[in-house]
Every structure is written in structure tokens, then in C-alpha cells.
């Protein structure tokens, strides 16, 4: 089973990287970009027996830092 | 007997030797060296130091992988028994990632790697790491980091301030840290994490020797005990 874990900074946590990307987009002449937040995508390939609880625990214990980050788990269709 | 200290080395640590030298200068006893894959610490340690560097290449987040290494389980256990633990720079990041200290260290607000000597204020001279400093003393210590921007929620920040757990504060804004916090201690007072490098300010050939008192504080506590 393919699993995508999206890790993003919590709302309200300053994102210097997102801000720099925002500035760069403006520098390239793109208009109308209101805000940019940068995150991280982690792709897992796990056995079908891996439970939702285990995936959740992976996120909480390692993949995301719960002090500053949120995560979202997307389970993709197995081909 | 002497002062039994240990310095941990992770793949990518680069301040471990400097840390060991600083501990030997302060105590007169060579520091023991511990490898990240070791499951156990040497016995009867008086002090554990987690040095700066780029453990595991800063993969995932700075300090994230090191915080889950075998030796860190032993260090968390030792810290729980009251053994003093100092984490500097990447060591501070490891301590927050391991949960021994609250908060997180994010990318510097400027996005730049910052490498220069900064002025710090000793906010609490009653800790086992700072007893040789005067309360409010200003000291000069180098910083060298990309991810030193201390973040915690307001409630945590208020608790740290209220409990005297801010050990060091930047006199000028350096990296975007909330309330200019440069170093904090845990609730029990035996774990200190700080971004500035006291081990880089212990020799006349360094920019200064203001870091000496930190190591001397830890040694003095043991002698007095």
C-alpha cells in the first residue's frame, strides 16, 4: 500500500522558507499570490497489514514534530 | 575519581572534540567518548554533553534522527535520574526533538546560516550550569547555526519565563527566536540546551573565554556536593 504523509507547519507558526518562496515568485513577476507555506511530502510503501493506528504513531513519533507541525495521511489505491 | 563526563558523537557531529577539550580544561579529567549506536552509557557519569554539528545530515529535521538513536534512550533515562545533560547547537535540537526540553528550533528567520560571536545575558545564575556567572552577566559566545529560531507556544514560553528556565537570552535579535531565548533548562534543572557554543570560548586563542564558567559551574557543583 502506498501512503502519502503530508507534513506542514501549524497555522500561526512563521514559515521563513514559504516567505522566501513567496518573494521569489513575486520577483519572477507572478501576481496575486497571497501566501506561501512550504511543507514536506513523505511517501511510504507499507504492507497492507499496517494499521491506521500504526501510521498515526509513525507520524507522531518521527515524521512530524508535533510542536510545530501538522500531518495528513493519504492512503493511495494499490495498483 | 575525577569528573566523569561523556561526549556523544553522532554521524555528522563536528563539535564533539571541542566539547571534550572544554570539559577536560574545566575538570582536569579527559572526557569519555560515546558513539551514537551504543545502547549504554559509561557508568557513574557526572555529566553528558551532546555536541553541535549536523547529526545524520540534518535529515528530516535537525536533530530528529539523532533523537531516536539508541544512545538517546540511555541519555533520556540518565536525565530522568538527574544526571546533568548539556546540548549545544545541534545538541539543543536533539534535546527538543527527544522531548527532554520543550519547544522546537526552526529555520532562522533570515533564512541565513549565522556564524558570529553574539552577546548573551545570563538570565538565571542559579542553575548547575551557570552558578559561576553573575545574575544578569553579559557574555560573548559564538553562534553557528541555520536552525536556531526557538519556537514554543505562548503558554510554554510564559511557563519557561515564570519558572526561571530561560538560562540565556540574546541581547540583540539573532535568529528570530521567540523572546530572544538562547538557552533553556528543563523543569528539574539538570538539562540545558543552548544554541551558542560555550566550548568555542574557552581558550585565549578563541574570541574569548566566557564559556569557561559554564563548564566550571558543572564541575564546581560536583566538588561541592
TrEMBL record, chain A:
<protein>
    <recommendedName>
        <fullName>Phosphoribosylformylglycinamidine synthase subunit PurS</fullName>
        <ecNumber>6.3.5.3</ecNumber>
    </recommendedName>
</protein>
<comment type="function">
    <text>Part of the phosphoribosylformylglycinamidine synthase complex involved in the purines biosynthetic pathway. Catalyzes the ATP-dependent conversion of formylglycinamide ribonucleotide (FGAR) and glutamine to yield formylglycinamidine ribonucleotide (FGAM) and glutamate. The FGAM synthase complex is composed of three subunits. PurQ produces an ammonia molecule by converting glutamine to glutamate. PurL transfers the ammonia molecule to FGAR to form FGAM in an ATP-dependent manner.</text>
</comment>
<comment type="pathway">
    <text>Purine metabolism; IMP biosynthesis via de novo pathway; 5-amino-1-(5-phospho-D-ribosyl)imidazole from N(2)-formyl-N(1)-(5-phospho-D-ribosyl)glycinamide: step 1/2.</text>
</comment>
<comment type="similarity">
    <text>Belongs to the PurS family.</text>
</comment>
<keyword id="KW-0436">Ligase</keyword>
<dbReference type="InterPro" id="IPR036604">
    <property type="entry name" value="PurS-like_sf"/>
</dbReference>
<comment type="subunit">
    <text>Part of the FGAM synthase complex composed of 1 PurL, 1 PurQ and 2 PurS subunits.</text>
</comment>
<dbReference type="InterPro" id="IPR003850">
    <property type="entry name" value="PurS"/>
</dbReference>
<keyword id="KW-0963">Cytoplasm</keyword>
<dbReference type="Pfam" id="PF02700">
    <property type="entry name" value="PurS"/>
</dbReference>
<keyword id="KW-0547">Nucleotide-binding</keyword>
<keyword id="KW-0067">ATP-binding</keyword>
<keyword id="KW-0658">Purine biosynthesis</keyword>
<dbReference type="GO" id="GO:0004642">
    <property type="term" value="F:phosphoribosylformylglycinamidine synthase activity"/>
</dbReference>
UniProtKB/TrEMBL annotation, chain B:
<keyword id="KW-0067">ATP-binding</keyword>
<comment type="pathway">
    <text>Purine metabolism; IMP biosynthesis via de novo pathway; 5-amino-1-(5-phospho-D-ribosyl)imidazole from N(2)-formyl-N(1)-(5-phospho-D-ribosyl)glycinamide: step 1/2.</text>
</comment>
<keyword id="KW-0315">Glutamine amidotransferase</keyword>
<feature type="active site">
    <location>
        <position position="197"/>
    </location>
</feature>
<keyword id="KW-0547">Nucleotide-binding</keyword>
<keyword id="KW-0436">Ligase</keyword>
<keyword id="KW-0963">Cytoplasm</keyword>
<dbReference type="Pfam" id="PF13507">
    <property type="entry name" value="GATase_5"/>
</dbReference>
<dbReference type="InterPro" id="IPR029062">
    <property type="entry name" value="Class_I_gatase-like"/>
</dbReference>
<feature type="active site" description="Nucleophile">
    <location>
        <position position="89"/>
    </location>
</feature>
<keyword id="KW-0378">Hydrolase</keyword>
<comment type="function">
    <text>Part of the phosphoribosylformylglycinamidine synthase complex involved in the purines biosynthetic pathway. Catalyzes the ATP-dependent conversion of formylglycinamide ribonucleotide (FGAR) and glutamine to yield formylglycinamidine ribonucleotide (FGAM) and glutamate. The FGAM synthase complex is composed of three subunits. PurQ produces an ammonia molecule by converting glutamine to glutamate. PurL transfers the ammonia molecule to FGAR to form FGAM in an ATP-dependent manner.</text>
</comment>
<protein>
    <recommendedName>
        <fullName>Phosphoribosylformylglycinamidine synthase subunit PurQ</fullName>
        <ecNumber>6.3.5.3</ecNumber>
        <ecNumber>3.5.1.2</ecNumber>
    </recommendedName>
</protein>
<keyword id="KW-0658">Purine biosynthesis</keyword>
<dbReference type="InterPro" id="IPR010075">
    <property type="entry name" value="PRibForGlyAmidine_synth_PurQ"/>
</dbReference>
<feature type="active site">
    <location>
        <position position="199"/>
    </location>
</feature>
<comment type="subunit">
    <text>Part of the FGAM synthase complex composed of 1 PurL, 1 PurQ and 2 PurS subunits.</text>
</comment>
Amino acid at each position: 500500500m502506498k501512503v502519502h504523509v503530508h507534513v506542514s507547519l501549524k497555522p500561526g507558526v512563521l514559515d521563513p522558507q514559504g516567505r522566501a518562496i513567496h518573494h521569489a515568485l513575486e520577483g519572477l513577476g507572478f501576481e496575486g499570490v497571497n501566501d506561501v507555506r512550504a511543507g514536506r511530502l513523505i511517501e511510504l510503501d507499507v504492507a497492507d497489514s499496517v494499521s491506521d493506528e500504526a501510521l498515526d504513531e509513525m507520524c507522531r513519533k518521527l515524521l512530524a514534530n508535533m510542536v510545530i507541525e501538522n500531518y495528513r495521511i493519504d492512503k493511495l489505491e494499490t495498483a | 575519581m575525577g569528573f566523569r563526563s561523556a561526549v556523544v558523537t553522532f554521524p555528522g557531529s563536528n563539535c564533539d572534540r571541542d566539547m571534550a577539550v572544554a570539559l577536560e580544561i574545566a575538570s582536569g579529567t579527559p572526557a569519555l567518548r560515546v558513539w551514537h549506536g551504543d545502547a549504554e552509557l559509561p557508568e557513574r557519569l557526572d555529566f553528558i554533553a551532546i555536541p553541535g554539528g549536523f547529526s545524520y545530515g540534518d535529515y528530516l529535521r535537525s536533530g530528529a534522527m539523532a533523537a531516536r538513536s539508541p544512545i538517546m534512550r540511555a541519555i533520556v533515562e540518565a536525565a530522568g535520574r538527574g544526571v546533568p545533560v548539556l546540548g549545544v547547537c545541534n545538541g539543543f535540537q536533539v534535546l527538543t526533538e527527544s522531548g527532554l526540553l520543550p519547544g522546537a528550533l526552526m529555520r532562522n528567520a533570515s533564512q541565513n546560516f549565522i556564524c558570529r560571536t553574539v552577546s548573551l545575558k545570563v538570565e538565571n545564575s542559579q542553575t548547575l550550569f551557570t552558578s559561576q556567572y553573575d545574575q544578569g552577566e553579559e557574555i560573548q559566545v559564538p553562534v553557528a547555526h541555520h536552525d536556531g529560531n526557538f519556537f514554543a507556544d505562548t503558554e510554554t514560553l510564559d511557563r519557561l519565563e515564570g519558572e526561571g528556565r530561560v538560562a540565556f537570552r540574546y541581547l540583540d535579535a539573532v535568529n528570530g527566536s521567540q523572546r530572544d531565548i538562547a538557552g533553556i533548562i528543563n523543569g528539574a534543572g539538570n538539562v540545558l540546551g543552548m544554541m551558542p557554543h560555550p566550548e568555542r570560548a574557552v581558550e585565549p586563542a578563541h574570541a574569548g573565554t566566557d564559556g569557561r564558567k559554564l563548564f566550571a559551574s558543572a564541575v564546581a557543583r560536583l566538588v561541592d556536593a
